[in-house]
Amino acid sequence: MIKHFLNYSLRNLLRNKFYSLSVLFGFAVVMTACTYMILFYTHETNSDQFNRRYNRIYRVIMENPVFGAMSFSTFSKSADKLRTNFPEIEKVTFIQWIGRVTLGLPDRTISEERMLLVDSTFLQIFSYNVLFGNPNQCLNKPNSLVITESTARRMYGNSSPIGQSIRWNDLVLEVTALVEDPPGNSHLQFDLLISNTSLREANNSVTNATYILLHENVSLKSLRDKLNHESSSLSESFGKILKFDLQSLESAYFHNSDFLYDFANHVFRYRDHRVLTDFLLVAIMMLAVSIFNYITFSQAKASYRSKDISIRRILGSTRSQTLILFIIEALTILILSSFISTLLTVLLLPQFNFLTDSLIEIGYLLNGKVIISLFFLIIICGFLLGIVNYFIFSSLKTSDLLRGIKIRGNPKLIYSLCLLQFCAALMLSYLTIMMLRQINYMNTKPLGFNKENVVGISLAELDWNINPQTIKEEFSKLPGVIHSSLSSGSPISGRGFYSERIDGQDVPINTIIGDANYSETIGLELLEGRWFDSTLKSDSLSIVLNASGAKLFNVGLDSLFGGLFRVIGITKDFNYSSFRERIGPVVMYYRPYDRKYKSDAILLLRISNTTKDMGESLRKKWLTLFPMAPFNMEVIEDKYESLNLKDTKQAYLLGASALSTILITVFGLAGLSYFLAQQKSKNIAIRKIYGASSGRLIINSFGYVLLFITVSSVLVFPITDYLSHEWLSNFAYRTEVPFWLYIIMVIASLLVIWLSVFYQVNKVVRANPSEVLRNE
Questions:
Q1: Using 50, 70 and 90 to split pLDDT, how confident is the model at 596?
Q2: Would you give the distance in Å from CA 301 to the centre of its chain?
């Protein structure tokens, strides 16, 4: 019987090609979205669970001494106190991210960004898979180095890295172990691990972190109380009593309030839990739209299917057999759709990873939880659709079938489902346009400086005895270089900061260091005063403030700042961060960099264009001057766009969901028009006999479309208005959402609906009235 029903379902799909393609397409798109949702949700919620002692590993978080908020940044001496004063703790490891470093290989130098200094206990606490080497001993000795598989291939190709020597500054490091790359859902990412004993003393930078492994059955509440009780000894290296707490590995990953994450996201990955929730809601909405689409088509086909059901009833088919038939038919559609969606999932996975900042590999499709979840999703949806379809026909009596009575479908049900479909499509479309409008606003709003055609070349990897002024002069001679400046960085990157207490609150102050050419290179706009002058020695004790800084400190030109520096200029406020943050005070200091420079020195160049040829010209010049030093250049415009990249990706992801929902809805509306054509075919035929023209009948059919769009627009507007303002409230600087934008969306939607139903209406209107009445 099952085989017969399966063959019947396949024949029925082949017989109704428009219906089959519409439903298969809709479910394939939705199954792809659901597959991604399951992949994403499973992958992210299983973060760090590869660690064998996952439930006993915690990260120590500490009150930031500058900003006051709790942060993962801790002191090395705090880690020492945890080892000696807390018997509840089995092991402790202190981690320090160094940032970009230059490593010397026998034949070349390379630049790496994800190198960690760690204690010898690192691989004893975390269960990263060690391929070669002893995890209990590979980090015990000074100058020991552990590298990942991908890094080993990048450095040595197919040769074994074990025992190889790598130079870092004045240290010679030996590779003692090889580990697999950290899983994509590990919150801690790295390429190289160096034993902490390689350095004389770890510094208290903002990228330090402490992890602990607790003994079994330790009370977290008691341990937290003890941390607070002994917080004075844990923070004595800073000279101020700070708060401490413990953070589980799950919280370490799903955490979005630590300001250091954006600074150190190369190493410390994190995920806002709201992203999972939003993606889950969108996937559920798309699934619901596709289910509504299927039900609408079933209702539209009711008159045709009634013939088939009548024959089966007459031949003795029971109600249970009819139910099984409908379930098998729905499961067949879902299974065929899942094959198509698997292909789409594999092809589009790189794009999905990019939009969601994920590291999901194709092999994760074979994860047991993913397969089981997809299996149950197909089964549940198949049974649900089969049962709904069964109830559409279950009220039909055999006596009615024998008299030739057809099922006409339930108009109220079809209208309601199509209305919900369109509401979902309209809402997603409007939110997408609103988000893209904000992205465009952020990309086009004047920033207060000129980001176009400016590049920064890092000088951090050069020897300290090299005069940076010489480098600046050499690059200034190149064709296409308009201005050049030595500085700590652009307004977007390379800023320093400190905290100052003003009106009882700790206010973060941004600092920028630049020479006399910084303003013209970066394009700052002066409101008052002047910029630094290289001919005036007194400018070494001068500063330039932005407008917000001058207002906050209530100072003007020639005022003293901090009792030592004289204010010589005030610039227009400029955006140095994302539009989510309000512009704060910026203090700009003068440093000509005519002697040894700090590691944060950058050569800023305003060039004629940022084409590939110009970049190659700068690279060749660098290699001529420093053939063994890595060439690290960043385009300031690209750096700025990266600030808004997360919001841009979110908009594009929602846009893809909206487009898919619209396409599914259009096919659903085609089903609605097919249903309406059946319902009104007799009425249209009679009106044509009495002289009504085809054009007039088509125009009359536009009335229900207008009613349809009006009702859905009224229902959707309050929801979309609330959601759009809720999303925009996260931005300190944002565009307005004009009401006319919603009107345009409604008009565009009206056209889409009309075009989707026009074919079926036109087909009925142009049919021969006598043929229609005879069939009735």
A1: very low
A2: 42
